[in-house]
Specification:
Length: 205
C-alpha cells in the first residue's frame, strides 16, 4: 500500500531547487536554512511504521522531516547537522536515511574535502524517532582512506546494519601497485548503528 502511495508523490524525487526557480519564486539565501525548496533533491522513504520520511541538504546542512503517511502534511524540519559544511549532494551522492526496525534512524552523507570530489563519509543517529540526532561523526579514522563517497545503508533480517561506499584507499597502497580507481568498501554494525566494525574492501577496482 505504501509503495503504491509513493507513486503519488513523484515531485519529491525531482530537483526541488529547479522547480522553485522555474516557478519564479526561488527562496533567497536567508530563507534557505532548512527550506525544502532550496534542496537539490529530497530523498523519500517509508519507515517500518508506514511514516513517510524525507532527507535533504539546504544551506550546507542536512535536514529531515516526516509525515504520518504519503497523504499527510510534513512536520517541521529537523536539523541533523548544526553547522554548514560542503555537503556532497550531486546526483546519487546525496544524503541517505535508514529507518531501523527498533525505531532509530541513521543518516549518512559525504562532506567534500576538495574540488576533486574526495569526501569524508559522515553518520548521525537518532534514538527518538527523528526528533533529534546525536552529533555527526566520520565513519573512518583519519588516514584510513583518502575518500569515501556514494554510500548505501541497509538493515539485514538479523538487525545488523550494512554500510557500503566507494573508497579510494587502493589508490595509495604502501609497497603495492596503486589500483586505477575506487573499490567497494563495507562496514557492519551489530548494535543498530551506534558503532561500526572495521571497514574492508570487498571489491577492488
Amino acid at each position: 500500500m505504501h509503495r503504491r502511495s509513493l507513486l503519488g508523490i513523484p515531485a519529491l524525487l525531482l530537483p526541488t531547487r529547479g522547480r522553485a526557480q522555474h516557478a519564479g519564486h526561488a527562496p533567497g539565501p536567508a530563507a534557505c536554512d532548512g527550506a525544502l525548496a532550496c534542496a537539490p533533491v529530497a530523498t523519500p522513504m517509508f519507515d517500518p511504521a508506514g511514516a513517510l520520511r524525507l532527507i535533504w541538504s539546504a544551506g550546507g546542512r542536512i535536514w529531515t522531516a516526516a509525515a504520518a503517511d504519503a497523504e499527510a502534511p510534513l512536520g517541521a524540519p529537523v536539523a541533523i547537522t548544526p553547522e554548514p559544511a560542503a555537503i556532497d549532494d550531486n546526483g546519487e551522492a546525496r544524503p541517505k536515511l535508514l529507518a531501523l526496525r527498533d525505531g532509530s534512524l541513521l543518516a549518512a552523507w559525504t562532506v567534500r574535502r576538495d574540488q576533486y570530489y574526495n569526501g569524508t563519509l559522515m553518520l548521525a543517529r537518532s534514538a527518538d524517532g527523528g526528533r533529534s540526532f546525536a552529533p555527526a561523526m566520520p565513519l573512518l579514522a583519519p588516514g584510513v582512506s583518502p575518500s569515501q563517497r556514494f554510500e548505501h545503508l541497509a538493515e539485514g533480517p538479523d538487525g545488523r546494519v550494512w554500510l557500503f561506499w566507494l573508497d579510494k584507499r587502493g589508490l595509495a597502497r604502501a609497497g603495492q601497485k596503486p589500483l586505477p580507481g575506487a573499490g567497494l568498501a563495507l562496514a557492519v554494525s551489530e548494535n543498530h548503528g551506534r558503532s561500526f566494525g572495521p571497514s574492508r574492501i570487498v571489491v577492488e577496482n
